[in-house]
C-alpha cells in the first residue's frame, strides 16, 4: 500500500492542474454530447419520437387509442399537433405512452379539409401520416369513419375494412436477431372500440418481391411451408407491443392473425437489408472517419497526455525540481516509474469516464448502448493507444528540457494525429497505388502509429462484431500485430526513456 502513495501523490498533483481540471470535464461532456449526435444519425432512419394510433367517429363522438414510442419501441411522450392549410394550430394534445382520448376537438382529424399533423418532443418535430377510411355501421344505419395515424415506416392493412391494422417492425439488433413489433388493430364497425380475441402467430420465409406483392392469404402453397410460433393474444387492447427473435437467414416476417371463428389473415413485413437501430448507433459512434465520435476523443485527448509528460518530467527537470526530489531516499527508477504510472492512471480514469458518459447518455436518450464486449474493446483500444502515445511523450520528456520537449512532442502529435493520412497518401502514390490504394496503405502502416489501437483497430473489431461493413478486410488488420504494436510502442519507449533518464544530468 505504501508503494502506491507516491503514485497517488503525483496523480493528485497532475490531476489538479488547471488545464487537466478544465479539459477532463470537457471530454466527459463530449461523451454525453456524442450521444445526441449519434441519436441524430439514428433518427434519420428511425424518428426519435413516433406514434401509432387509430381514431373513430360514429357521428356523435370522436375517440382515439394509440401509443407514443421511441427509437426502440419503448414508451415515451410527445405532443400531437394538428394544423390547417395556413399552418395554424387547430388541435393539440400532450400524450404519454399508451393513450386513450376523446372529445369534440378530436373530430377535426376527420375534417374533409387538408390538415397537417406533427408529433413534437424534446428531440424535434416529426410529420405524422394520416389514412382515412369509412365502413358501414354494424346496425346498418349510418357509417363509421376512422383515421389511422402513424410515423416512420409503419405499414397499414385495410383488406378487412372493418378491422384496420397498423404494424411496425423495429429491428433492434441484426447481430442478436432482436426485434420489436408494434401492432394496432381494432374493430370499428360498432362505433366503439371492441375486443377481438385474436391469436397472433409469426413465422419467416424467403420471399421474392413478386411474392410480397401478391396477397399472401391467396398463396396457400407459401403459407403451408411456414412454421408458425405463438406471438401472443389480442383481447381488448388496441395497441400491442411484442418482442420477438428474427430469423437472420430469412427475408420476411409473416404474421398470422386468427379470429375466434378460425378465419385467418396474414400480414408480412420484409426486413432483409433493413438497417437496425443498433447498427446505425454503432456506426455513428465508432466510425473511424467520423469527425465527431469516439475517434474524436482518441485524436484530441493525446494533447492532455502531451501536457502531462511536460508537467511531470520536462518542466520539473528544467527547473531542477527532479534533482531536489532525488535528494530524498528514492532512486531514479522509483521517480521515473512513479511519475509514469501517475500519467497512466489519469489516462485509465479519463477513458473510463468518457465511455461511461457515452453509455449512460445513450441508454437514456436512445435506449441503445454498446454491449460489454464492445465497451471492453473500445476501452482497451483507448488505453493501448493513449498509453503508447504517453510513453512516447514521456520518453522525450525524460531526455530533453521543457522548450525542446514541447517542440518535439507537438511535432510528434501532429505527425501521428493529423498528418498520418497524408503520409499514407504519399506512400501510396510512390508505390504506384495512387488514390485507390490510400486506404490499403493506411491500414498497412497503421501498426507504426501509436494511436491506431483507438482510431483503427478497436473501431474495426467493434464494427465486425456488429456485422457492419468496413473499408478494411481481414487480411489488412492482423489481430496479432494489432496487439503487438502497442506493446512494442510502450515497452520500447519506456525502456529507452529510462535508460536516458538514468544517465542524464538532472540539474537545471
Automatic annotation (TrEMBL):
Entry keyword annotation includes Transmembrane: yes
GO terms for cellular component: plasma membrane
Organism superkingdom: Archaea
Protein name, as recorded: ABC transporter permease
Keywords, in A-Z order: Membrane, Transmembrane, Transmembrane helix
Membrane-spanning ranges: 20-39, 292-314, 335-366, 372-393, 405-430, 476-499
Annotated source species: Ignisphaera aggregans (strain DSM 17230 / JCM 13409 / AQ1.S1)
GO molecular function: ABC-type transporter activity
